[in-house]
Amino acid sequence: MKNATYREAVRTALRRALLEDPTVFLMGEDVGSYGGAYSCSAGLLDELGPSKVRDTPLSESGFVGAGIGAALGGMKPIVEVMTVNFSLLALDQIVNNAATLRHMSGGQLAVPLVVRMATGGGRQLAAQHSHSLESWYAHVPGIKVLASGTVQDAHDLLLDALEDPDPVIVFEHQFLYPMEGPFDPDAPRTSPWRAAIRRSGRDVTLITYGGSLPKTLAAADELARGDIEAEVIDLRSLRPLDHATFVASVRRTHRAVIVDEGWRTGSLSAEVAARLAEDAFFDLDAPLERVCSVEVPIPYAKHLEDAALPQVPAIVQAAERAVRGRRT
Amino acid sequence: MTSLSVTKEEGVALLRQMILVRLFEERCAEVYGQQKIRGFLHLYVGEEAVAVGAIRALDDDDSIVATYREHGHAIVRGVPLGAVMAEMYGRQNGCARGRGGSMHLFDVSRRFFGGYAIVGGGLPIAVGLALADQMNARTRVTACFFGDGATDEGEFHESLNLAALWRLPVLFLCENNQYAMGTALRRHASDPAIVHMAQAHGIPSRHVDGMDVFEVLDATREAAAAIRRGEGPRFLELQTYRFRAHSMYDAEKYRDREEVARWKERDPIAFATRKLDGAYGLATAEVEALRAAAAEEVEASVREADAGTLEPVEDLRRDLYVRDVG
User: Rounded mean pLDDT of B226-232?
Assistant: First the structure.
């Protein structure tokens, strides 16, 4: 298998979908002439033309809503929102329309829409370009939410989202775009709605998704050097949550650490922890541990940003606490 | 004898529909009083000429996006009265299985894409429907209704810009009933000439007397024809007035009785009746017959709603997704 970057994997999926399906088109801010803020659509305008690859005005609510309307009209739009922070300007369309229309119309409407957005911090872009608000979207029934943490998933989850008949939000972590990893565009895809066990281990389960996956895997490597074998679960789908997979893992390891770049309060980590408390309470041999972002707006200065985000040492320490007990 | 652009038969059909909407709305208020309809109920009384004139100027294949004050639009579009009433009763024979209620009527078979209750929220949807038509080289028009209040929303300007930029086949129909809920136009818009906002986006626009169903019909036909010729979006500002309260919770402290009385002198049903009589002669008995037939249709819708059943609670999660994956 060849190596590729996460960015190249996204671009490969975009190009393939745009070429193969006449109803698919891409629109968003600077996806065309500029090639995408993160270069995910570089060259696609020249190759496929301005009807398939559409630069939009800076009107997040307008063009996300237009994507919903186009989906109602039989198209399969891929709408790129530059970052999750900008998507707040389109929350009305996503939450009030995309998520509600099928149920509220008694099953008459379908919204086969894919909204891609970059999320997360780590690039010193400060508090209006660095947040992780995946949990906000995962909170809302009526949409589905995917987050890719590997190069292969950056490709596969996007195609999976496009094959789904419902509105799907696909999160790409902006720190991962230059990351290299194994990539086979023709590899058989697993169900996007199932979590993946990225590493097997018997001592503790580390549950994470998206941009925190590489950090969590690095932490697992370090733990292995200290004789702790960690199992790493990549959630992949944030709505619906594949709780069977992580509950089964915790029933084997009896310990869990949840790593989430969102803020702890009201986060996905809180939801995962609650489900473990509901369904694996008697299997737990240690209190649940969480590694989340510090509850401040993500700062610009590198040392402060690093301190605000989940990092490998904190994950290692949390896993060690779970395995060896907390010092009181 | 004044002349009209429609035949007597067409004119009477317009009048008949306005009467039907009027009687339906008044009956809704009554059954609301009996607590058979709950939640918000926004009545269209006084504004009937807008929906009737505009929608009858469209083709059956055109798309419609409406607001939360959309019973009239649904009815004129042909959504069965019983299905509209049953929807408000929360029954599963409603046009959205009772899940939407008064503010969220849907009938995809008639390309009635729904009532949208976030002010301005339907406009981007209409733009997208039109985009899909343009990309598929269809000559369909998407008619998008919204009120004067929506013109203050960012989504309004975003949608007009996008529609104009891409020359999309959207017909923007601003139902200017002079109030954003209870805030008068002059108190919510820096420039109360709403057409200026459309002109700023380069969209041909005009004022229309929204109390004159014939003028609404003609203006809509002309605008829709231009859109079908590929000339891009059009914008109509339809001046109208809501005779009743904003919703059933509104004490109407923000407007005086004299103003309401002045507008009632321009009642669109009385106006159309006079015009038809002037042009063709219209006997009182003919109008009474229309009214009686409409009243019977409305009563039948109430009976249908009363006879409707509730969606089983076990179906609560049904149709959340097309494909349930978890």
Answer: 97
Q: Dump pLDDT digits (tens) for A59-99.
A: 999 999 999 999 999 999 999 999 999 999 999 999 999 99
b/e map of B64-89 (b: 16 or more CB within 10 Å)? bbbbbbbbbbbbbbebbbbbbbbbbb
Report d(CA A218, CA A315) in Å as an integer.
9
CA distance B18 to B187: 30
pLDDT single digits (tens) A177-231: 999 999 999 999 999 999 999 999 999 999 999 999 999 999 999 999 999 999 9
List domains and CATH numbers for chain A: 2-183 (3.40.50.970), 196-324 (3.40.50.920)
Among chain B residues, CA nearest to A110 = B322
DSSP B325: -
Distance CA A236, CA A241 (A): 9
Which helix (DSSP H) or strand (DSSP E) does residue B165 occupy?
helix B154-165
- For A10, A20, A92, the CA distances from A152, given in Å and listed in that order, are 9, 19, 32
CA–CA min distance B68, chain A (Å): 13
| Interchain CB distance below 8 Å, A73 and B127 | no
Residues of chain B with Cβ-Cβ distance to A67 below 8 Å are: 128
Chain A, nearest residue to B168 by Cα: A66
Q: Which of B50, B65, B193, B49 minimizes the C-alpha distance to B118?
A: B65
d(Cα B302, Cα B24) in Å, to the nearest integer?
9
Interface test with B, best of A105, A113, A275 (most B CBs within 10 A): A105
Pairing of strands A237-239, A144-148: antiparallel
Closest residue to B100, CB basis, from A57, A104, A241: A104
Which of A8, A29, A80, A129 is catalytic? The answer is A129
ipTM over 0.90: yes
Residues whose CB is less than 8 angstroms from the CB of residue A116 and which lie 6 or more positions away in sequence, other chains included? A10, A28, A78, A79, A80, A81, A158, A170, A172
Contact B247, B40 (CB under 8 A): yes
Please tell me the CATH superfamily of domain B8-315, with its number.
Thiamin diphosphate (ThDP)-binding fold, Pyr/PP domains (3.40.50.970)
Residue position matching structure tokens 């950056």: A154
For the segment A258-289, what is each residue's pLDDT rounded down to a tens digit?
A: 999 999 999 999 999 999 999 999 999 999 99
Give residue A1's pLDDT. Answer: 79
Comparing CA positions, the residue from A3, A8, A2 lying closest to residue A178 is A8
The answer to whether A109 contacts B106, with C-beta atoms less than 8 Å apart, is: yes
On the question of pLDDT at A108 being above 70, the answer is yes
Chain B CB contacts of A102 under 8 Å are 319-322
- Contact in structure between B195 and B160 (CB atoms under 8 Å): no
Q: Could A110 and B322 be called an inter-chain contact, meaning their C-beta atoms sit closer than 8 Å? A: yes
Chain B neighbors of A165, CB-CB under 8 A = 321-323
Q: What is the DSSP letter of B311?
A: P
**Is residue B287 classed as helix, strand or coil in its secondary structure?**
helix
B288-307 residue pLDDT tens: 999 999 999 999 999 999 99
**Is B132–A193 a contact, with Cβ atoms under 8 angstroms apart?**
no
